[in-house]
Design goal:
409 residues, alpha+beta, Alpha-Beta Plaits, Ubiquitin-like (UB roll), 5-stranded antiparallel beta sheet, 4-stranded antiparallel beta sheet, 8 helices, 22 strands
Length: 409
Amino acid sequence: MFLAIWNFLRGHVRIEISGFSVERFINQAIAQGLVFWDLRRAGGKFSACVSRRDYLRSRILCEKTGSRLVALAFYGLPPLLMRLRKRAFLAVGGLVFIVGIVALTSFVWRVDIEGTSRLDPAEMLVFLEENDLHVGRFRRGIAYRDIENKLMLEFSDIAWVSISLRGTRALVTVVETIDFRDEQAAITEGEFIDIVAAMDGVIVYMATSAGEPLFRPGDVVRAGEIVVAGRLMVGSAEEGNLSYRYVRANSEVWARVYHTLEIEVPFAYYEKTFTGSSSRSYSFSLGSWEFSLPFNFGANHDFIYYENIVSRWQASVGEDYPLPISRTRNTSYELVRHMRSRSPEQAEHLALELVTRRIEEEMAATASILDKQISFTQNERSLIAQISLITIERIDQPQSLLPEPTLPE
């Protein structure tokens, strides 16, 4: 890599040597320390690349050995500058372009946030802008560690955050705290907890390793009720030595759960068909300055029904060097709507597909389905599918427990 850059800066020549003394020329050239690369041989001719200095020495050596030397092409910066001497405006334009690219890559032109699920990236971008990290900010002088600390203080759901600069792109990587309502692992060590029911059901299995079970298999439990208590009774009230000990309750609870779903499928519906007609409008932005083209390709359409697709392209020098130049294309595709109707059999078939899809999306990964019953009723406008499901699901959920204060005697 560096050798190629050096050869470009000092310039080099591709030469071709022919005649009856080519081998003699090569031997003497090696003896005198001439450097050749990219050697090629075709018949009795020999070609190679040589530096501009060794090119002059090669010509002298050819005269001594009786060989014939022809310069095929000149490469590198020196011949390029020679060609640009008569094209001053082209040279100046190229220099201005290079300086402009270097200047543009000295600013932040995109701020990306990764790792958010509960946090709102738009809200975080506003906070970052208020704390001196925004599009158009000069890359030098940004206090990344201070901004990270401010983010941690401002957003309680952030467990860890890192800001890194990759070219003209600022990347904010966030690790969120775990929601204790969804993950038992979020309960901190040393905190006392109860195990409560996440939903209504009939308990079929319990395995308790800590805490006091308040239900047993076969009992009906309601959502929110404490299934395994983290407060243990020690002693008895009759003997006057009643006290409580608190633990982190731990139990695996499975229950038979009953679900009811309802899906309505109308007999009449609209079917969309694209006509093939479309219109496009373009807008461009340079930093914070935005403008639209004075002419657009049918932008002022008179479509009654249509769908819009917006695509945005941003100029960049590689993946990590986005530039403040972007183009937005808004394409409207015309469509027509035709009123269609389904038969009761078609509506029933569609309802079964929707029921299957919904069960797979909502329950298949966490529940085992014991029984499924579907009944259909219809009115003048639609078919209504009513689904009754019986599943076996895990319903234990941790809940923080605050010890009661000890009253003075």
